[in-house]
Amino acid sequence: MAIEVYVFDLDGTIVNSGEDIAFAVNAALKEFSYWPVPEKEIISLIQDDSEKMLLNVLNRSTKNHFSLETDYNQKQFKKICEFYIDFYQNHPVIKTNLYAGIKNLLKVLKEKKKTIVLFTSKEEAATLKILENLDIADYFDFIFSKDSFNLGLDSLLDCINKKKSSNYESKNCIIFGDTALDIKRGRAFGATTVACRGGLGNSAELLAENPDFSFSVASEIEKFIDALSMEENSSKIIEFAMKNEVPIIQDEGSNFILDYIKSHNVKSVLEIGTAIGYSAIRFAQVSPEMRVTSIEIDEERYKTAQANVQEKGLESRVKIIFADALEYELNDFFDLIFIDAAKAQYQKFFEKYKHNLNEGGVIICDNLSFHGMVEDLSLTHNYSTKKLVKKIRKFIDFLKTNSEFITDFYSKGDGISVSKRKK
User: Fold this and answer.
1) Is 293 exposed, middle or buried (CB count within 10 Å of its CB: 0-12, 13-18, 19+)?
2) How far apart are CA 361 and CA 421, in angstroms?
3) Cα Rg of the chain, angstroms
4) pLDDT averaged over the chain?
5) Domains in the chain and their CATH numbers?
6) For residues 330 and 325, what is the distance between their CA atoms, to the nearest angstrom?
7) Of 20, 6, 4, which is closest to residue 134 (Cα–Cα)?
8) What was the pLDDT predicted at 17?
9) What is the pairing mode between strands 15-16 and 97-98?
10) Closest CA to 254 of 276, 289, 283, 234
11) If you average pLDDT over residues 405-417, what whole number do you get?
12) Residue 190 dihedral angles phi and psi, to the nearest 5°
């Protein structure tokens, strides 16, 4: 089942638009002399149908004293809806921003020639303004807004196949959304479903629908694009990682390191950050002479990695250590040291383990682009994420100015550095 069509909801999946929607709703309430409703309450009521949202908000504003039983209220409600739509279309991107890593995800999907679709119940004018203002409109092959949205996913797929002269089926599609309704819709259509827990929807209701995959934000799917492109998922490890949100290196980055290992006759690797053993196993499979030592701080992941290594019959050549890499003392030496653990600690890992590097060996670090946010900090508005990105930038500066090592940087996977001691 190769996934070729990526279908995204807009609000709560691609963009965090809650504050602007709430602002427009309260502007409409004020225009017609109703009490404002707290922003968080309005955001919790956001749904596909803006009229239903406004009716729920009006009930909150009037303490359930607003109904559509009278002609006056029906006419009043129509005016409120019209005002809201007009106001929102003129102010859709005051505070609205992209979720972390979204722009880079769209870029990668485009490079991999996937069909990228936006499927939203939002009015077309506001949708296009948001996409253009955030500079992502050109990434989408198809944009289906309110009128098209009501036709459903089957009509969407028919339209895609007709315009692309393709034969995609629902099983070739993956649907991203932040509400229970998004998952229900995707499942009924027969597509793979991805829940975005960090969106605007109720996460408990979202997860109760048992989506195929669940991530904090949609961009976390990026490292699994190649796996999803396979007719059959050949790796249980990758499937486990997707199901359990375990970070693994992107295939492009992993292949880059494997090529380096082969071309430089690397025989020993130290990995900081085992996760579930995906990289360690791939390294060991390069040749029978390869020896891999990997350190993992999380006990559950350590146990899973051990089981995966044993299943592959590699326990004699892959040693997994359950420890805090910053405290563990290792006396062995390695041709290649791979750092792919806590990003905020990269410099400490580098300084500690450089003493375990063989002459002519290299230290390779992953995730130095961090979904494109290192190059463009405006891609995230999350305070903790910004702090982490700044630490990665600081580490990059450390590598660039290091008097002991010379470092080359590569835009492979999520950004890779290769550091070698100066002669």
Assistant:
1) buried
2) 8
3) 25
4) 92
5) 5-15+96-233 (3.40.50.1000), 18-90 (no CATH), 251-421 (3.40.50.150)
6) 9
7) 20
8) 95
9) antiparallel
10) 283
11) 93
12) 100, 15
pLDDT of 279 reads 93
Q: How confident is the model at residue 224 (pLDDT cuts 50, 70, 90)?
A: confident
Query: Tens digits of per-residue pLDDT, 230-268?
Result: 765 556 777 788 777 787 777 788 899 999 999 999 999
pLDDT single digits (tens) 304-335: 999 999 999 999 999 999 999 999 999 999 99
Sheet with 268-272, strands from edge to edge, namely 318-322, 291-296, 268-272, 334-339, 357-365, 416-421, 405-410
Tokens found for residue 406: 């010379």
Of 339, 345, 301, nearest to 326 by C-alpha is 345
**Torsions phi, psi for 351 (to 5 deg):** -65, -35
Q: For residues 28 and 91, is the Cβ–Cβ distance under 8 A?
A: no
- Supply 29's token pair: 């309430």
3-state secondary structure at position 421 = strand
DSSP conformation letters of 306-368: HHHHHHTT-TTTEEEEES-TTT------EEEEEE-S-GGGHHHHHHHHGGGEEEEEEEEE--S
Length, in residues, of the chain: 423
Strands of the sheet with 115-119, listed across from one edge:
142-144, 115-119, 5-8, 173-177, 192-196, 213-215
Rounded Cα distance between 249 and 255, Å, is 10
The pLDDT value recorded for residue 232 is 59
- CA 246, CA 242: separation in Å to the nearest integer? 7
Cβ–Cβ under 8 Å, residues 249 and 269: no
Q: Tell me the per-residue pLDDT of 132-191, one tens digit each, with 9 for 90 and over.
A: 999 999 999 999 998 777 788 999 999 999 999 999 999 999 999 999 999 999 999 999
pLDDT tens sequence across 339-393: 999 999 999 999 999 999 999 999 999 999 988 888 888 777 777 888 999 999 9
Give the three-state DSSP class for 175.
Answer: strand
